[in-house]
Design a protein that fits this description.
- The protein is mainly alpha-helical.
- The chain contains six helices and no strands.
Amino acid sequence: MELRYSLIVILLFIFFSLPSVIKDIRLRLVEPVSIYAGTVVIAVFLFLVNRNIFLHGLLAALVSFAIFFITHKIVGRKLGMGDVKYSLLCGIAAAQILWAIAGLLAGCVITALTFEICYLAEKKDKVKTLPFVPFLFAGMIIVLVVKMILGY
């Protein structure tokens, strides 16, 4: 994808992610309207830019959603449905399965490191939950910027 199109996707991803990031930090809830709207807007943009990238983006969104949905079913309430819905936006923004998985894994690693630091710094019984969407957002931004720099 051209540099200018990649930059537009990153800006759209940031714009539609921020309501969910802020709400997840404050209330441990995710804003579904911004996630669905962002997914549709990015999908339409990709469709207008390149149909092939659009199809890869849809597939990446579905794979991301499937991975998180299965994980949600396995771990129960530890991974909320808001996080599962947010994976749709991450997948469509990545527009390729491997980049989407890389972004989601980067978010998981950032979450794990943050949890471990909090766990070691605080009393062990105080740290129970962390908002997940802000870390997924950070991981996806890193991956989207790397993807843009490499020209994918």
